[in-house]
C-alpha cells in the first residue's frame, strides 16, 4: 500500500499535463466568421475536458475494481466496472466534440 499514493500522484500529474496540452490555443483563421470560430473552439475545449474527465474516470474505475477484487467486495468491483464504462462514454463523446469543432473550423476557412 506504500505505492498507492505515488500511483495516485502520478495519475493526477498526468491528468493535469494532459489538460494543459489539450487546451492549447489554436491559430485563428484569417477568413471566416468569428462566431463560428468561437463555437468551434468551445466545442474542441469541451471535448478535451470531457476526454480528460473520461480518462480519469477510467483510471478511478480500474482502481476501484482492483481494490474490490483484492478485498473480496463484489459491489466495489462492480462499481469500478461501471465507472470504467462511464469514462469510456465520456472519452467517446469528447472525441466526437473535438471532431465536430475541427470540422466547423475547417468549414469556416
Chart the SSEs and their pairings.
Elements: H1 4-22, H2 34-71, H3 74-107
Summarize the structure.
With about 110 residues, the chain is mostly helical. Helices cover about 85% and strands about 0% of the residues.
State the main characteristics.
109 residues; mainly alpha; 3 helices
| Percent strand | under 5%
The secondary structure category is mainly alpha
What is the chain-wise order of helices and strands?
HHH
Q: Roughly how many Å is the radius of gyration? A: 18 Å
How many beta-strand segments?
A: 0
**Rough outline:** elongated
Instruction: Note poorly predicted spans.
Output: none
What level of helicity do the residues show?
over 70%
Q: Largest sheet, described in full?
A: none
Ends: how far apart? 54 Å
Average pLDDT for all residues: 84
Number of helices: 3
Structure explained in plain terms:
- The structure is a single chain.
- The protein has 109 residues and is mostly helical.
- The protein has a domain at 35-109.
- It is built from 3 helices and no strands.
- The longest helix is centred in the middle third of the chain and has 38 residues, at 34-71.
- The N and C termini lie far apart (54 Å).
- The mean pLDDT is 84.
